[in-house]
């Protein structure tokens, strides 16, 4: 990342607009997120397969985002082919989905054994299962965010870990597909640090599934190239409005907004950044190779200018 602030052209705000486009820019993010969660919960209540339900809803969300990115883009140039589509697909399928699922399964299995042993010894569960489901879910968002925030922040501030996370930040445009643009080591580090705490506290499996759904929906929405307005939501959730600044080429701007779902720890720890204008240039000065092989191998050996 660059350490100097660039020209005003990169941070211009949206032009004044009115009518349906302006209205949509305010309601799309909360509307899409709420609709997706409602669809998943409805499917579960009707006895549908959880995984099939999640991926069906996720697919519909992606289609909606892809269309909206063409109809009302945040940055029109981001809709052009950046030569990384194949790489984004590889990282998403191999690293983000396959490796992520394997590591999550391993962590869940290990934590399950520890929780089972702990419960056997103490005959008590820490998680407040008698709370209303909505209250448990809010608690889970806060608990889960602690690990996610930590994992994300150190991936920026620890040079060795930045080697791998730089692959994600090497994208020069943000759109739905590069949501899953992560190196294998980056995925492993995130899962290992983010997942254990809620599991150790005994969060129910059904609640963890809803948490996973919420995280996936917020994740793809935070990378979408759609003109949106957020207001106070930028201070609560990981919206595109704050996440685009996290992808800034300027170090002081990019080393902010680490939250995966919520901005609570960013606000509390002073890493929240939302200057009230739009950013249109993203990327990193770290010389990440363009080839998929280079993106997988170079982080292991270190980058050289």
TrEMBL record:
GO terms for biological process: lipid biosynthetic process. InterPro entries: Fatty_acid_hydroxylase, Sterol_Desaturase_Related. The keyword Plastid does not apply. One of its GO terms (molecular function) is oxidoreductase activity. Keywords: Membrane, Transmembrane, Transmembrane helix. This is Sterol desaturase family protein. It comes from Emcibacter nanhaiensis. The keyword Transmembrane helix applies. The chain crosses the membrane at residues 20-44, 50-68, 89-111, 197-221. It is found in: Membrane. One of its GO terms (cellular component) is membrane. It holds the Pfam family FA_hydroxylase. Its main location: membrane. Residues 137-271 form the Fatty acid hydroxylase domain. It comes from the Bacteria.
